[in-house]
Amino acid sequence: MAQYTSISATVPLVITDGVDNFQYTVVDGTMYLQQIVDASWEDVEEFENAGGGVWRMGVRNLHWVVDCTITATGFSGTENTDWLNIEQHKIA
User: Fold this and answer.
1) β-bridge partners, 77
2) Which end of the chain has fewer CB atoms < 10 Å from its terminal CB, N or C?
3) Is there a contact between 69 and 47 (Cβ–Cβ < 8 Å)?
4) What range does the domain containing 83 cover?
5) What is the DSSP letter of 70?
6) To 5 degrees, how large is the angle CA 52–CA 58–CA 64?
7) Given this model, what pLDDT does residue 58 score?
8) 63-69 and 55-60 as β-strands: parallel, antiparallel, unpaired?
9) What is the sign of the dihedral through the CA atoms of 65, 68, 71 and 74?
10) How far apart are CA 60 and CA 79, in angstroms?
């Protein structure tokens, strides 16, 4: 079963291992991976808005995935029509 976490400007995804702190956040539809450096968030990677600006990360079919909506139907719709798989990495 697929499991996802949504990411938005108001609900970033914060990841920490107790030493390093990262967050995925959305600004004007574009998602950024940021790291705390000298007490401020610095951009590490940028994921360009595919059109809808709503993002999710999760696990689907043994892959870590990053998806973005492209229409108002979003994740309730069809892949490549309403949302895009932006990135995926095999985990098993």
Assistant:
1) none
2) N
3) no
4) 3-90
5) -
6) 110
7) 96
8) antiparallel
9) positive
10) 13
Q: How many domains does the structure of the chain reveal?
A: 1
* Rama region for 50: left / alpha / beta (φ>0; ψ in -120 to 50; rest): alpha
- CA 6 from chain centre, in angstroms, equals 7
Output the pLDDT for position 1: 78
Report the pLDDT value the prediction gives residue 92, as an integer from 0 to 100: 76
Find where tokens 């108001």 sit.
10
Cβ(55)–Cβ(48) under 8 Å?
A: no
- What number of H helices and E strands is found in the chain? 0, 8
Q: What is the pLDDT of residues 26-67, one digit of tens each?
A: 999 999 999 999 999 999 999 999 999 999 999 999 999 999
Token pair for residue 12? Answer: 């970033």
